[in-house]
Amino acid sequence: MASNPPSSCCTRGFYHEGKARGTIRDAYGIETYVSGKDTNDKVIVILTDIFGNKLINTQLIADQLGDAGYKVYIPDILFGDALEKLDETVDFKIWLEKHNPTKTRSAVDQFLGQFRKEHPNAFLGVIGHCFGAKYAIQQIAADGLADVAAVAHPSFVSVEEVEAISNKKPLLISAAETDGNFTRELRHLTEEKLADKGARYQIDLFSGVSHGFAVRGDMSNPAVKYAKQKTLFDQIYWFDTFSK
């Protein structure tokens, strides 16, 4: 594995303060949070962690990406079954069985496939947080539908999926110093595989933070706040660079 399956650290975190400015509506056949520009020439799709598209933290991230000049979509890839509380009150094993890779991939493919059908020439970037990182990585394979990807504290990504990444589709990885899913060994293995295939990539490692920092981190902790904000800044610059 290039990253381990989601674990208990994926089921907890902190709520962030702010008021979402986007709307929830149907988009390409899936209930979706939509924010940002009205046009579809530069688009970012966020593939969420297990808290889904109604988590205020992720909606606020989408709004900030929208402020940077993108149309942003957060499709519901969890079939209306997102976790609602950041307090570990879930039977994670049962939850994961209902959200297996085949079923989840079908939702992602449906959304992106319909988008591409309607907007074949648009720039399409994908962001994957934790659970969603696997599906973001899949979309920058040679047969994937995205142009560029960025992932934060990834889970469930296989070595084969890393090896399948297209050299023409850049990847940004934002990693935590302490992460049982994306461990030091798996991080180095990912780097090795990307370098061996000549991929365009960047890996940022943030000290003093743990898994989930980019979405559900404690903003009262200066190290976490910095890492969260820097991850978003890096993602915007990454997409700006490759969308030109």
Automatic annotation (TrEMBL):
UniProt xrefs under InterPro entries: AB_hydrolase_fold (IPR029058), Dienelactn_hydro (IPR002925)
Molecular function via GO: hydrolase activity
Domain Dienelactone hydrolase: 30-242
One Pfam family hit: DLH
Protein name (database record): ZYBA0S07-05710g1_1
Source species, domain of life: Eukaryota
